[in-house]
Amino acid sequence: MSNRLLDILLGLTPRERLALAIAVLLAAPLAIAFAVVLPLAEARRAAEQAEAEALAVDAWVRARAAEQAPLLAAPEITARAPIGSSGIEQRLIQGGLRDAVSDLGARADGRVELHFETVGFVRLANWLSAVHPRWGYDIESFRVEASDQPGDVAAWLTLVP
Description:
By secondary structure, the protein is α+β, with helices and mostly antiparallel strands.
C-alpha cells in the first residue's frame, strides 16, 4: 500500500505535492479537533451544568430542612404520674370530647381504654396532641376507622402508664 501511495505522490508535480502537504497539515488538526476536542468540551460543559444544578438543588433542600427544623424539634417531655381515668375524663370534658366517648374503662394494671364511636378526626387529633405529653400515659395502641360522614372516624385507644 505504501508503494502505491509513493507512486501517486511521485506522479504529482512539486506544486501539487506542496498543496497536498498543506491540505494534510491543516486537515489533520481540524479532524482531531472535531473528532476529539469538541465532544470533550461539550461533555465538560454538560457536566459543569449538571453540577451547578445539583448544587442548586442541594442548597434548596438544605434551606427547606432549616425551615422545618423548628417544626420537627420535639418539646422536652418530663415523665409525670398517670392522671387516671377520672383525669382523662376531665381532659375529655375540657376538650369537648366527653360526649363522643362511648367507652372509657380502666384495668387493674393501670391501662385505660377509650372508644370513640363517632368523633371528628381533627378534634381527636388536636385533643391528643394537647394532652398526650402531660397525662402520664403512653399510647399502646391506636386504631382509627373511617366513618360514613366526611371528617368523622371511630377510634380505639389503649393507654399504659
